[in-house]
Amino acid sequence: MEFSSKLLEEAVNEMSQLPGIGRRTALRLVLHLLKQPESQTVALSKALLDLKTEVKFCKNCHNISDTELCEICANASRNSEIVCVVEDIRDVMAIENTSQYRGLYHVLGGKINPMEGIGPSQLTIKSLVEKAKSGKIDEIIFALSSTLEGDTTNFYIFKQLEGLDIKTSTIARGISVGDELEFADEVTLGRSITNRIPFESSLRN
Ligand SMILES: [Zn+2]
């Protein structure tokens, strides 16, 4: 792609760093912004910068939050003895949309993936295990997508919890293997949480 302007090229380069945005789409977006009033670009830049500099992570579940303790963890009507382990905030949002779950979450921030250099220490596994050892948790539900990385992560955590008096379960999938959680429809996902199965019995499949 040949550009008549260095400024335009730079903007397109930056925009196309985003996932799913090719250079053509980046150019379309940049030209769109150029046509809009300056205030819109200022508002967009400010929102992104504020997000990056001011975002907090809940000190209990590690979900993105505006406060030290997120709304879910701070809600006294939720059952704090049940913790659902998910990869990121998109899974929390998907499960919350089902209205079928009243426990808390633990956001790992990713899955163990040696190919991409992501090991257990880069995730919030240690804090989950500490939480489990506190004796305040009755059940841990694994709700990671059933990919190789998801299964590896579940199993790693399961091993860390060995010897603790905690029930472990996994969401019963009506979803085919490899499907990402966030794409599951609400009814299927809601049902799979309600009908969760002991984690150990999922290992036999
Ligand atoms: Zn929280």
Automatic annotation (TrEMBL):
Transmembrane segments: none annotated. InterPro entries: DNA_Rcmb_RecR, Rcmb_RecR, Rcmb_RecR_Znf, TOPRIM_dom, TOPRIM_RecR. A zinc finger (C4-type) spans 58-73. Pfam families: RecR_C, RecR_HhH, RecR_ZnF, Toprim_4. Keywords: DNA damage, DNA recombination, DNA repair, Metal-binding, Zinc, Zinc-finger. Residues 81-176 form the Toprim domain. Belongs to the RecR family. May play a role in DNA repair. It seems to be involved in an RecBC-independent recombinational process of DNA repair. It may act with RecF and RecO. NCBIfam families: recR. This is Recombination protein RecR. The lineage of its organism: Bacteria, Pseudomonadati, Bacteroidota, Flavobacteriia, Flavobacteriales.
